[in-house]
Amino acid sequence: MIYINRIIENGASFIKRISPLFVFLLFIFELSAQERPNISTKVDTTFIKIGEQVQWTVTVDIDSTDFVIFPEGQTFSPLETVEAFATDTTRKKDRLTLQKIYALTQFDSGAYKLPSQRIDINGTGFMTDSMLINVATIPVDTLNQKMYDIKPLINVEKSNYDFWTYLLIGLLILSILGGLLYWFVFRKKPLTEEEKVALLPPYDRALLELKRLENSKYLIQDEYKQYYSELTTIVRSYLEEDAHVTALESTTGQLIEKLELLKDAGELKLDDDTIKQFQQILQTADLVKFAKNKPSTTVAEQDRKLVEQIVEKTHEALPEPTEEELLEQAEYQEELERRAKKKKIKIAIISTIAVILIGITIAGVKFGFGYMKDTVLGHPTKELLEGEWIRSSYGFPPIQLETPQVLIRQKIKLPAEAKAAIADIQAFQYASPIGLFNIGTTSITLTQQDVEPDFEKTIEQILSNFESQGAKNIITKQEEFSTISGVKGLKVYGSGQFIAPGAKKLTEGEYTVLLFGGKGFQQYIILTWLEDDNYAQEIVDRILASVEVKTEL
Questions:
Q1: Of the ranges 18-27, 299-308, 399-408, which one carries the lowest mean pLDDT score?
Q2: Mean pLDDT computed over 517-539
């Protein structure tokens, strides 16, 4: 029994000693059980004619939890990407097979290296194999087909499309503003009932308002105060307008006293009974409004009829207006209409200006006031940035880049001392007529094919050319530059004071020079722009991101 217990104890201690090793071996086993990603590539052909397409297929076999990023954009240079097809996915248990097809082409004959492509899987890069694609020219029957010289460059008239677009937009905006101005200012609007009543003569308006008061429900609803308030307001307003008596701001006693004075002066032919009746009605109204007196309905209706008679008698008692008075009234009405029209025009102008200012403020906050100003007034480099860009190759060995304008071939006269070292030089340039923005490319073929280019000497020559053109205080920095396809070059950049076209004073500017080359040739790109020109900086960044060079002669 003791012997058995010892065996059990020894076994337990042994298991404790080997358990960490056992766990570690299990972990290694699990890691090895997870298969590594499998990447394979193929092309449907390695021989195409100019302009034909070759399909490059990459297949990735991964775990279902892996994350894959395929190449995007023009990463196959010197071949051009025509189309990247959608990724085809196939699942088998816990494994995924992803297949991506790219259509590639080339428009120059020769043998081109399809560069290695980076496939990112879970943040780790895997490089594919490179391949050689042969591009052949299309044979031309020179016996039956005549050959012609290359036609010279011709100037093409600038399209007026933008001008007509802006003109139509301007006319549309003016039409909308004119329509709004006509609708709210100059259009004869149908008068409302209140406006029609306000245009009536005082006598007719008073009778109409007394008729409305008769048909009101004030007496039925026991609203005597409101009834007598409107009754006295109607008659007081009439006397003030037609008899020219300050009745609205006068007390009952003051108003009766004024009427009696006008009667005694012979300006208002009213009898004493009419004045006494009017005084009684005003006193009754005062009692109703201030002493909360409540007459009978019959008395209230009778008072309204008496007021109507007073209005009629007053109208009859007034002397006929003279021609001068009628003329003054007509002129007064015309003046009122002119003032009203001026007021409407002023309101319309202020409203339009307010809408424009609000729109400008909103647009300025959203897009920036500088951007909005440049959009309205125009900016040379902004128009270049937002225009149609062109991708092309320049010179030999070719420099390929994307620019907002086509670069124009420049005639270069080599000095006698340079002809011995340089077999050929091809330069292309675009220079903005406003500001400092310039793009230039130069491809140089050396007479000695085994000589490496001297970048330092080229840089000194470029900076010397800057200084000969008036540049000062040039600051220079250097760093390595790589194109999308991985071609290495040298980037020289910095700032200085330059003289812009048409300017007499120095202005702050920036420059960038890219240099590439190999045995027997050299290529460089020069960019200059104003220091505070943000649009030019965006153009430069886009150009630098598009640069590709062919480094094989």
A1: 18-27
A2: 87
For helices 161-181 and 323-367, angle between their N-to-C axes, nearest 10 degrees: 140
Residue 13 has pLDDT above 50, yes or no: no
Strands of the sheet containing 131-136, edge to edge, are: 47-49, 131-136, 110-114
Type of residue found at 464: S
Question: What letter would DSSP give residue 184?
Answer: I
Give the chain's length: 553
Rounded Cα distance between 240 and 249, Å, is 10
Cis peptide before 397, with omega less than 30 degrees from 0? Answer: yes
Distance CA 277, CA 266 (A): 20
Percent of the chain with pLDDT over 90: 10
Give the pLDDT confidence of 123-168 residue by residue, as tens digits: 888 889 888 999 987 776 666 666 667 777 676 666 666 667 877 8
Residue with tokens 């409305």: 212
Could you tell me how far CA 148 lies from the centroid of its own chain?
Answer: 49
Tally of CA atoms within 13 A in the half-sphere of 204 that contains its CB = 6
Region 193-316: CATH code: 1.20.120
Longest dimension (CA), the chain: 154
117/484 Cα distance (integer angstroms): 11
Cα–Cα distance measured from residue 254 to residue 270, given in angstroms and rounded to the nearest whole number: 17
| Superfamily of domain covering 386-549 | Mog1/PsbP, alpha/beta/alpha sandwich (3.40.1000.10)
- What's the CA gap between 528 and 437, in Å, rounded? 5
What six digits make up the tokens of 535?
């649009």
**Quick check: 403 and 384 in contact, CB under 8 A?**
no
Calculate helix-pair angle for 272-290, 297-317, nearest 10 degrees.
Answer: 140
Which amino acid is located at 40 in the chain?
S
What radius of gyration do the chain's Cα atoms show?
48
Q: At what angle do helices 224-242 and 272-290 cross, to 10 degrees?
A: 140
Peptide bond connecting 201 to the previous residue in cis, omega within 30 degrees of 0: no
Name which of 8-22, 77-91, 276-290, 394-408 the model is least confident about: 8-22
Q: How far is CA 373 from CA 78, 203, 433, 434, in A?
A: 41, 60, 20, 17
Find out if CATH 2.60.40.10 is the number for domain 38-136: yes
Amino acid letter, residue 125: G
Distance CA 61, CA 56 (A): 17
pLDDT digits 0-9 by tens, 108-118: 888 888 888 98
Quick: pLDDT tens for 59-68. 999 988 888 9
Q: Which two tokens stand for residue 375?
A: 């959009």
Angle, alpha carbons 215-217-218 (nearest 5°)? 115
Task: Name the token pair of 494.
Answer: 């910095």
What Å distances lie between residue 410 and 156, 405, 407, 441, CA to CA?
19, 15, 9, 10
